[in-house]
Amino acid sequence: MKIALIAHDKKKNEIIELAKKYKDVLSEHELYATGTTGTLIMGETGLKIHRMKSGPLGGDQQIGAMLACGELQLIIFLRDPLTAQPHEPDVSALLRLCDVQSIPLATNSSSAVIMLEALKGKIYFD
User: Fold this and answer.
1) How is 53-84 classified by DSSP, letter by letter?
2) 60 catalytic, yes or no?
3) Of the four, 17, 27, 30, 62, which is 20 to 30 A from 46 by CA?
4) Three-class SS of residue 121?
5) What is the pLDDT of residues 31-57, one digit of tens each?
6) 9, 24, 60, 80: which is the annotated catalytic residue?
């Protein structure tokens, strides 16, 4: 399964902790991430991650293009709803694409845990 990992700045520590906790699960899948998030997760876990550009520099759009082409099966995007994002239109487009393509999307750590536990139990999404 191809999984994208994305996190706004104030959520980077949360996604790193999730990646550490679920390293064994994530290592069984092909991982993609926006630039900074991918670098941080790789540094903390040693997981192999295909890195895109930083979100505000086009990384969200790169992930969106993969979604539009049916190349991703799960997105974990830990969003910071309390901080204005300069690339909010790109973020909205990414969320819309998940809905259009019916791709599972976790936008907070609680929903991410549910999805990662499903993967751990070998329950896959169609």
Assistant:
1) --GGGTHHHHHHHHHHTT--SEEEEE--TTS-
2) yes
3) 62
4) coil
5) 999 999 999 999 999 999 999 998 888
6) 60
